[in-house]
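Quick one: co-fold with pyridoxal-5'-phosphate.
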Amino acid sequence: MQDLFAEELQALRARSLDRHLREITVAQGPEVEIGGRRLVNFSSNDYLGLANDPRLRKAATSAIDEFGVGAAASRLISGTQSPHLRLERALAKWKGTESALCFSSGYAAALGTIPGLVAKNDVVLLDKLCHASLIDGARLSGAILRVFPHNQLGKLESHLEWAQREHPGKRVLIITESVFSMDGDLAPLRELVELKKRFRALLMLDEAHAVGVIGPNGRGLAAAENVSEEVDVQMGTLSKAFGASGGYICGARTLIEWLINRARSFIYSTAPPPAIAAAALAAVDFLASPEGEQRRLLLWKKINLMRELLSLLASHVSRPNENAGSAIFPLIIGNEQAALDLAATLQSEGFLVPAIRYPTVAKGAARLRITVTAAHDDDQIRALCQAIKRRSP
Ligand SMILES: *Cc1c(COP(=O)(O)O)cnc(C)c1O
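Sure, here it is.
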């Protein structure tokens, strides 16, 4: 047994595909500490710098004082406490949907929701670059799964025609993301909505990297494009820009009631700690406030600075994010070991930038994934870009 894994691990190592944990010894922020060294952190999804915000800390500690730590049971048994419901009401209000439902993670939201929406003989059409949680949810549903090339709506349209022809009367669910997690580009949402309406399909949109970043008060791409009503299932996570933890689905009241009855990751898992719900609620309140909107605009200043500086490097490092639509900047390196080497060099110079490799991205499409947050100084961004410029071939 042991030898089997040792061999497999060795094989991973030989292909530069092995992964290891690194210990962060301080709170999350624009700087972290690893092995006693301070590093400027360009690896986190804490886009608004809320993970260690006093407002969230206070909300969590007050909730611990009032409600304790564990939720003790699943939501449907006795695990639903006031903070869970307050959070769901606030999320629905902020998103402008009838209702909302929280899960213990975004991953759990996808895994529970998709099999609640479609089953065997239904059809799921998934963008090629969708997150693992969406792929896993789609597989678990048992529905017929077709993948369309990234953002290629012509291909999606032919899949829709095929589904209509070959599986008449069956439910068709299109799944995509607002902001793609490893590429940072956006889905053509308005055109997607046109298609889904024309073919009477359902549309599920994962806003994990869009909420807090895009749209008025960070309400996401559906809100920014004014198509919120047309997106049947709005998924997101409380673990990224919200600085807390958990996942959510926003949508019609009947959808949410259905998920309460059908989403297995919701039904058969203990409710998230009430303190986490309270912290997430503090984040929603912050985003909805003028101060939150200012923080988001500050993030965009940092995004624009990063984009400008990286585009100057375009000839040194391949294709920085052309789309400029998000806080995610992939520097495509290609070779896995080369990406690891560049990440290691940057780390030795004081920057934490993760090398992203297969199977998170395609083989030979390894990259550095730089994320910028509102909490970064301009000088930190400049220093990173200079370091990349010095080191790139
Ligand atoms: C991170 C992520 C998730 C999962 O959310 P968690 O709350 O971290 O489990 C789902 N979808 C996308 C696109 C993500 O990037």
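If it helps, The mean pLDDT is 95.
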